[in-house]
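ugh ok fine here u go
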Amino acid sequence: MFRLETEADKERRILLGRRLNEDNRNGSPGLRALQSTPAEHELPLDVWLLDGRGALAGGLSGRTWAYWLHVDLLWVDARHRGAGLGARLLAEAERLAREDRACTRSRLETWDFQAPAFYRKQGYEVVGEIEDYPPGVAEFILVKRLDRAAGPPPKAPRGRLLGWRNRPK
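structure:
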């Protein structure tokens, strides 16, 4: 006999993730091939734009895993928009991902009222669209190939190592 429970349980969530990751590795030669490589672990990647006083004027927060950069957040203060700062933030994140972490691609999500045209100008292509997410809004999934600079790949990624077990919630 089984029973269903609905309360939040951090320990069970960790166990669930561990078991799913194990099943995924067992079922995917590609995921198994990542083991013991620099791309095996998810690493945060942040780029900050500070004004002359050191205040936050913009930033990009993302992560790298499996030779991909995933951009989670990109924002520039309205007072500074239109000066190419968003493009600079994105280009620096892509450079770090490519040169320091051997990433070959980048992905992100954006809503229709946010910045799909901006990302297309930066070389991203729409690979998916989800209508009504949230209601009345379309979400776009975009990807870009990151051309690798000449030279050997890095030996290990830079940054703080965060596996799925100790990833911030």
